[in-house]
Design goal:
The structure is a single chain. This protein is an all-alpha fold. It is built from six helices and no strands. Helices cover 87% and strands 0% of the residues. α2 crosses α3. The radius of gyration is 17 Å and the shape is flat.
Length: 119
């Protein structure tokens, strides 16, 4: 259950943060044209980014909880690899990103690896 929480919260953090930064725009260009204060204001007031940071914290503390009762040799690979899979799915469905065939094949291979790891 803890690994599932790590994966879900990490994926939510990744999707929210990515969406927020796409909304903010190119930080380098924004800095050059409007200055550092505008960059800080856009980033600090973006509710998606703040939500993403919240989910990063949930993921981190869930990972700590999982490591308190399970082996790191299971928790770390399972949570990292399953996050890779859920990120690909979320990128395609929520962010409407192009996830090519190579990434889907990699995601399936990750699933197979996690299945082997858990048995």
């Amino acid at each position: 259950m803890a690994i599932a929480i790590v994966v879900a919260s990490s994926t939510a953090a990744d999707v929210l943060t990515s969406g927020a930064m796409k909304n903010v725009g190119d930080i380098g260009e924004l800095y050059q044209t409007q200055g550092l204060a505008v960059v800080f204001k856009r980033v600090a007031t973006n509710t998606r980014l703040l939500s993403g940071i919240f989910f990063m914290a949930v993921s981190f503390y869930s990972l700590l909880a999982a490591l308190s009762f399970a082996d790191v040799s299971l928790v770390a690979p399972a949570s990292a690899s399953m996050t890779f899979v859920t990120d690909a799915i979320a990128a395609r469905l929520i962010l409407k990103e192009n996830v090519d065939r190579r990434r889907w094949v990699c995601a399936l291979m990750v699933c197979a690896g996690v299945a082997l790891l858990t048995h």
